[in-house]
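STRUCTURE:
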């Protein structure tokens, strides 16, 4: 081997001992650092070296990498003060990260570290060294709880593995303390938690959820359909058809912190984690399509996070790249930018900066599940605990705690960078095929009894979750886990990293011991790792044995699940501050660019314009039944009034969803994803107001929330600016069963050889129809304003619902050619978007006094009041107008499309009889 590696072909200057160990290098003030390829990335050198070994007859070599060792010494004549300063600098993580930055590539290389045994960490009330050293991000209530828990309940010190485990798995990111906590708003105790308020929306909607607030995804009742499946999933076999009751699965996640630090891998692993949420529903589900969205800053600041252009390009590429390699299309989404200095509440005279310094990276996914697999089996003594998917790597260490900080940018960069995961979509595809094969075996033969995806907190979180019983009075759960049983991708992994690393493409399952051989057979066929790492004990304890078995005096982890769960909800004391109303909108000459674009793979022909309002998937190859999904978010309006922003987010989601024929509006279920700096003064109160407004509106409309996620660390410490908060953002995803996927209406005008009519259906309150509101509009932002307190709102829920149902009837009767919602940019923008997407000519006029007041024409054209643009054929026009008038729906004829396409297409807008555009 030495001869081969030293051969000129591989260009190696090889020695049998390190030249850095010479006598002249024996200094007390030195640092040795070794940098080499990340364990997850095989280099071209390794590929060539392994090939050379095999050609030379040397067997058993699977990987061979080269690394570089650097010895950093202080000059022998340095002063004592310089020695002390040098030693302090070398011992900091920032130093090591800086060295890695200049000596290697952070994306493909890392520092090689030696493993270490678990340590007992001393907890003192006045001493938070363990918190800072391990990057635990504990707040005072966390610290007090663990101090009391270990000192008084367990009467021992925790190990570093236990501390790291609890900090991740019990973080805000994982346990949602804010939404489940006690709220005291301006000194008044709130009667229930936000989570319970959200759950109550189910009472006013149809009872069509088969999974709700209890699994990795939610699911609603679907249809009995004809599907294509393997006749014998345990072996190579023919595909066959069968009928089964199939339900619709949806989940949504955000990956904001990782995307801000490393946009491409952050967005990619956000998609990967959400895909695993989809397939880890029940006892195994199927992924179909994804949604992706971003919110980012406008300008580059001195920050530990990435630049806006890097986030825009690399996050978009990361999400698409992972989906493409896995085989899941992105069918809907949006991109938003915002940054403004605002005077709000008790902020300083110069105001506060509101901007997406910490970005939003949203990933949603829709899928399907067999009715017989919707319920997980409870953990019982004797069941096997197994990991499936990729091996253990030192990747994503501490992501749960890092994502739960009140303000980003206050920690050492090395800790933040180490918390970012890396994705492997090829392994995800293998994992998907393994789960799909097991699911296709059916409920009785499926070896998977329960499944959870590995995310925040790594093995420490997912393995406790998989063995935790929801019926502790009859089955306590608990398990003994063996560190030696894990498949390691990096042999230098420490116990803390094995237990806490959030390496991707990995799930935990409860495995039927009688079907272990069957599971192994399928895993081998799909080339997907299966590691049986433990067994359910039934004593309610989770015990991790260290490397080498049970030789340790103290187990690295030994925790009682019931004791951990006994923690009382946190109490949050919130204040409202003194509201400072925004100034009314006043047009000025300097303009800036608009802040939002619909940006997704849901394109419209013939120009492939990314404009489609609703994403639709089929559930069967033979039937027209499917599922529809749409997004809504209005954070800028929420800056003026949080409650209005939440109501308009619901309204936008539904005005997007309306263009797919669904069963009924009461069957619509929503995922609510909250991105808010809720732990900072006044922001928590704004979130509470938004949540209450959303729930009240849903009760009136008959729709409900069945899941969601929160990211409450949307603030960043920025040099020269202090703390910059992101706009409080609520993303609503509305999804429902689609009764005919061939009747979906798209927003591209279609004047197929003849003129068609363009209609504007107003969903604004009748009283306010002639008083359009510009607050929070794109026009106001173009003038560097918010536009005053007069903000568009969903004021009349009954009228809105009536309009929704009427448009649904028209779609099912084939009376509409195209349609689009009026949203960001207003009425004129919506019309032009449809014309651009259809690549055709339009002629519009807004000089109808009964619809649009001439003296308020600017407001009418750019106000973002809820409404719809509809295109109809001439022979259907009168029927639609008569039905609208009969049912009290306010609709106006605003123009025609012309059969002039391509380069010759023109868009003419007339106001007051004059052509203005």
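SEQUENCE:
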């Amino acid at each position: 081997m030495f001869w081969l590696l030293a051969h000129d072909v591989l260009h190696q200057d090889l020695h049998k001992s390190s030249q850095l160990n010479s006598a002249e290098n024996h200094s007390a003030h030195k640092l040795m650092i070794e940098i080499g390829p990340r364990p997850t990335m095989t280099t071209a050198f390794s590929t060539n070296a392994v090939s050379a070994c095999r050609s030379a007859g040397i067997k058993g070599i699977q990987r061979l990498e080269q690394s570089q060792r650097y010895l950093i010494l202080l000059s022998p004549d340095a002063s004592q003060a310089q020695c002390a300063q040098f030693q302090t600098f070398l011992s900091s993580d920032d130093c090591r990260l800086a060295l890695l930055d200049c000596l290697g590539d952070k994306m493909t290389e890392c520092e090689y570290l030696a493993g270490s045994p678990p340590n007992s960490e001393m907890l003192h009330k006045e001493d938070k060294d363990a918190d800072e050293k391990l990057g635990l991000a504990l707040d005072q209530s966390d610290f007090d709880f663990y101090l009391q828990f270990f000192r008084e309940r367990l009467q021992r010190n925790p190990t570093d593995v236990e501390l790291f485990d609890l900090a991740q798995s019990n973080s805000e990111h994982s346990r949602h303390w804010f939404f489940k906590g006690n709220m005291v708003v301006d000194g008044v105790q709130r009667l229930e938690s936000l989570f319970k308020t959200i759950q109550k929306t189910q009472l006013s909607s149809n009872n069509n959820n088969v999974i709700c607030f209890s699994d990795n995804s939610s699911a609603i009742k679907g249809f009995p359909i004809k599907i294509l499946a393997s006749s014998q999933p345990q072996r190579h076999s023919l595909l066959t058809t069968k009928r089964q009751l199939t339900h619709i699965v949806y989940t949504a996640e955000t990956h904001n912190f990782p995307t801000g630090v490393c946009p491409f891998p952050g967005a990619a692993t956000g998609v990967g984690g959400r895909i695993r949420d989809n397939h880890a529903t029940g006892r195994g589900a199927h992924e179909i399509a994804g949604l992706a969205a971003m919110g980012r800053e406008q300008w580059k600041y001195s920050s530990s996070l990435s630049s806006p252009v890097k986030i825009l390009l690399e996050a978009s590429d990361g999400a698409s790249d992972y989906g493409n390699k896995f085989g899941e299309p992105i069918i809907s989404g949006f991109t938003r930018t915002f940054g403004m200095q605002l005077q709000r509440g008790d902020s300083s005279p110069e105001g506060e900066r509101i901007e997406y310094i910490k970005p939003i990276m949203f990933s949603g996914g829709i899928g399907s599940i067999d009715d017989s697999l919707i319920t997980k089996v409870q953990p019982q003594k004797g069941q096997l605990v197994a990991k499936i998917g990729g091996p253990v790597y030192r990747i994503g260490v501490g992501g749960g705690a890092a994502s739960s900080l009140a303000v980003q940018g206050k920690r050492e960069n090395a800790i933040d960078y180490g918390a970012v995961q890396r994705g492997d979509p090829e392994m995800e595809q293998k994992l998907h095929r393994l789960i799909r094969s097991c699911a296709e075996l059916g409920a009785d033969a499926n070896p998977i009894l329960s499944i959870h995806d590995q995310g925040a907190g790594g093995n420490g979180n997912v393995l406790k979750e998989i063995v935790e019983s929801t019926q502790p009075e009859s089955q306590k759960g608990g398990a003994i886990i063996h560190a030696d049983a894990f498949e390691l991708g990096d042999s230098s992994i420490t116990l803390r990293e094995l237990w806490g690393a959030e390496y991707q493409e990995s799930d935990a399952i409860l495995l039927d011991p009688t079907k272990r051989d069957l599971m192994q057979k399928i895993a081998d066929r799909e080339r997907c790792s299966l590691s049986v790492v433990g067994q359910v004990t039934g004593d309610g304890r989770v015990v991790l044995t260290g490397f080498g078995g049970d030789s340790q005096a103290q187990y690295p982890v030994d925790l009682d699940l019931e004791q951990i769960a006994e923690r009382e909800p946190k109490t949050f004391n919130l204040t409202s501050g003194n509201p400072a109303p925004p100034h009314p909108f006043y047009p000025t000459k300097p303009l800036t660019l608009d802040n939002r674009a619909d940006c997704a793979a849901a394109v419209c022909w013939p120009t492939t314009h990314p404009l489609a309002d609703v994403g639709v998937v089929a559930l069967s190859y033979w039937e027209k039944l499917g599922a529809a999904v749409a997004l809504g978010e209005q954070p800028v309006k929420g800056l003026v009034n949080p409650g209005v922003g939440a109501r308009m987010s619901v309204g936008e989601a539904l005005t997007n969803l309306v263009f797919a024929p669904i069963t009924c509006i009461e069957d619509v279920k929503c995922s609510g994803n909250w991105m808010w700096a809720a732990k900072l003064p006044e922001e928590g109160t704004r979130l509470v107001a938004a949540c209450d407004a959303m729930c009240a509106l849903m009760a009136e409309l008959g729709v409900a929330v069945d899941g969601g996620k929160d990211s409450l660390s949307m603030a960043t410490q920025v040099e020269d600016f202090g703390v910059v908060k992101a706009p409080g953002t609520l993303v609503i995803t509305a999804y429902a069963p689609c009764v005919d996927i061939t009747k979906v209406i798209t927003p591209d005008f279609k004047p197929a050889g003849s003129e068609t009519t363009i209609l504007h259906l107003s969903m604004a309150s009748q009283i306010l129809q002639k008083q359009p509101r510009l607050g929070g509009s794109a026009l106001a932002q173009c003038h560097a304003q918010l536009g005053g307190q007069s903000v568009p709102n969903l004021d009349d829920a009954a009228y809105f619902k009536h309009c929704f149902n009427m448009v649904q009837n028209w779609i099912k009767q084939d009376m509409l050619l195209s349609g689009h919602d009026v949203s960001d940019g207003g009425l004129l923008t919506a019309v032009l978007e449809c014309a651009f997407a259809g690549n055709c000519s339009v002629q519009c006029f807004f000089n109808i006094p009964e619809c649009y007041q001439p003296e308020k024409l600017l407001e009418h054209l750019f106000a973002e009041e809820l409404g719809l643009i509809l295109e109809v054929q001439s022979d259907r026009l009168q029927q639609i107008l008569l039905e609208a008038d009969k049912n009290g729906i306010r609709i106006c004829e605003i123009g025609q499309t012309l059969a002039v396409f391509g380069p010759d297409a023109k868009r003419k807008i007339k106001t007051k009889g004059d052509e203005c555009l």
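REMARK: Residues 745-915 form a domain with the Phosphoribosyl-aminoimidazole Synthetase; Chain A, domain 2 fold (CATH 3.90.650.10).
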